[in-house]
Design a protein that fits this description.
Blueprint (H helix, E strand, L loop, with lengths): L4 H21 L10 H21 L6 E2 L3 E5 L6 E4 L2 E2 L1 H21 L7 H20 L3 H10 L1 H11 L4 H15 L1 H14 L4 H4 L2 H4 L7 H18 L7 H9 L2 H26 L1 H27 L4 H21 L3 H32 L10 H4 L1 H14 L6 H15 L5 H27 L11 H19 L2 H15 L6 H7 L21
Antiparallel strand pairs: 1-4, 2-3
Helix pairs in contact: 1-2, 1-4, 2-3, 2-4, 3-4, 3-13, 3-16, 3-21, 4-5, 4-6, 4-13, 6-7, 7-12, 8-11, 11-13, 12-13, 12-15, 13-15, 13-16, 14-15, 14-20, 15-16, 15-19, 15-20, 16-18, 16-19, 16-21, 16-22, 18-20, 18-21, 19-21, 22-23
Length: 528
């Protein structure tokens, strides 16, 4: 495929914009009485969202920048390149990231404090790092942003989290950082072995290497390193111990971004890197990975069912939902994969809405305990409606994006050779448990017998959470806007064999009008 000037400029503008916004925010007054940081944060995040739409469009075309040689790896001839690329799968995750941030900032203006500006800075840096992961076309570039997203989380939680903030921040940082050390070593080894760290050139590189037989053990070690890094970031059972602690300790706006957006980076790593680069190892380890994912589905739901801390309840709920997405991904079936992409977006919308509602409740009550709430439906009916609406999107009510995603995953489980009636039953049970713990939460908070006087939802909270619910309904009614654009790209991931027509089509996408060669100059009619 070609590389376009347009793609080069637009992709880099999109990547740089959040960091530039964070830098500008640092020069704005942090005075709580001055709402400049609030207005600027919302405005800048909307500009970034508009820039994403202009850059990526519907996602049906692959948008690429040039491949710029950056440096040579230590100890060999492996070349690291600076290159960016977006296809349909990364496009929808970019859209999730740029949609969630302005919504979170808008809702957060109702809870603004003296450190609101610092939180805005951290969220912009976090968004920029997440976009870097979704747009990276080189493993080293991906790794840099993969690690960079940890820093704003660490700083914001350690400074502005709850009473457990220091321990939670330290556990999060050490767990996620140490888990990715192996991936760094694997990237270095692959760069030396294959002479490049470009992701498209490393697809099934171990399998297609002339000395493939002698590299099988190395391939297994590299695959394991990538799997562990992404399993921790997701997180996947048994690497989930940090999740509930950091989600509970983080400021409400950060919790929403962590659950709604950052968790998808782990899933994206499985889709973009592990599946295409290590197809044999994934096939061999599928039973083990599926066992962990199924345990995660049930364990997350059961733990959520007994929680009294609202944030911990949502953290374990997120664990269960993300594990369900992983189950769909492991099915290697087209319907399931379509459901995976839809559900990644749907989960981002629903869990963000739930965390924002809990943030609003905590701000008013000063507590996250179920026992401290009740009768919200009488005292703050709009806030109760937002809570119920968020709950309905999370339990996959028909007409919501979650329903479309979970239905497709369930269908894929039934059709896949890796599925079974038992697995269908387990997935169905998890959906029942999801309804049980969320209905328990709504009953206690909105319809409990006793409760303190609470202020009604402010306009900013209503608009922000309402936008998330509306987006879920729109995507639930027309999920094909996601499934149709991702179908062609997903085929090569589901069946990565070189003899597969889907693999060939995915590996060599047809050039589009946006692919104007950066090296050769504009494509003329005679060059087509």
């Amino acid at each position: 495929m070609g590389y376009s000037w347009e793609g080069f400029v637009m992709l880099h503008a999109l990547l740089i914009a959040p960091f530039a916004a964070a830098l500008i925010t640092a020069f704005i007054s942090s005075n709580d009485a001055d709402s400049s940081a609030q207005r600027w944060g919302i405005f800048a995040s909307l500009v970034i969202a508009a820039l994403a739409v202009l850059t990526l469009g519907s996602g049906s075309e692959v948008v690429s920048s040039s491949v710029i040689p950056w440096f040579t790896l230590w100890g060999g001839e492996g070349v690291v390149t600076w290159s960016l690329q977006a296809d349909a799968i990364s496009t929808w995750l970019v859209y999730l990231a740029v949609f969630v941030l302005p919504v979170v900032l808008l809702a957060g203006t109702a809870w603004a404090s003296e450190h609101f500006r610092d939180v805005v800075i951290g969220l912009f840096v976090m968004q920029g790092a997440i976009l870097g992961c979704f747009l990276a076309a080189d493993l080293v570039v991906f790794y840099i942003f993969f690690e960079a997203m940890l820093l704003p989380v660490l700083i914001l939680v350690a400074r502005y989290g709850d009473s457990d903030r220091r321990g939670a921040a330290l556990q999060f940082f050490l767990t996620t950082m140490l888990a990715s050390v192996g991936m760094l070593v694997a990237i270095w080894y692959m760069g030396l072995t294959f002479g490049t760290t470009r992701i498209p050139e490393l697809v099934a590189a171990f399998r297609d290497h002339p000395d493939a037989a002698s590299l099988q053990q190395a391939a297994a070690w590299c695959a394991a390193a990538f799997l562990i890094a992404f399993a921790v970031k997701l997180p996947m059972v048994p690497f989930h111990s940090w999740q509930a602690r950091i989600y509970a300790s983080a400021p409400a706006m950060l919790s929403a971004m962590l659950a709604g957006v950052m968790a998808k980076v782990g899933l994206y790593g499985f889709i973009r890197l592990v599946w295409p680069i290590f197809p044999e190892q994934v096939a061999m380890w599928t039973p083990m990975l599926l066992s962990f994912a199924v345990v995660g589905v049930l364990w997350g739901a059961l733990l959520a069912l007994v929680q009294t801390d609202l944030k911990r309840l949502l953290a374990y709920a997120s664990l269960g939902h993300l594990s369900l997405i992983l189950v769909g991904l492991l099915m290697r079936e087209e319907a399931a994969f379509a459901g995976v992409v839809v559900q990644m977006v749907a989960h981002g919308l629903s869990v963000t809405a739930l965390f924002l509602v809990v943030g609003a409740l905590e701000f008013r009550r000063g507590s996250r305990s179920l026992e401290d709430f009740g009768a919200v439906a009488q005292r703050a009916p709009v806030l109760a409606v937002l809570l119920i609406g968020s709950m309905l999107t999370a339990v996959a009510m028909p007409g919501t994006a979650s329903f479309a995603g979970e239905f497709l995953i369930l269908l894929g489980v039934a059709l896949s050779q890796h599925g079974s009636l038992l697995l269908v039953g387990i997935v169905g049970l998890s959906l029942i448990l999801t309804a049980a713990y969320l209905l328990r939460m709504v009953k206690a908070v909105a319809y409990g017998p006793h409760g303190p006087a609470l202020g009604e939802a402010k306009a900013s909270e209503t608009v922000a959470i309402g936008a998330l619910l509306l987006a879920s309904v729109v995507l639930g009614l027309v999920p094909r806007v996601i499934t149709e654009t991702t179908a062609a790209r997903s085929a090569g991931i589901i069946d990565p064999r070189p003899e597969s027509a889907a693999y060939q089509r995915d590996a060599e996408p047809a050039p589009s009008q946006r692919d104007i060669s950066l090296v050769r100059g504009p494509i003329r009619d005679g060059d087509q």
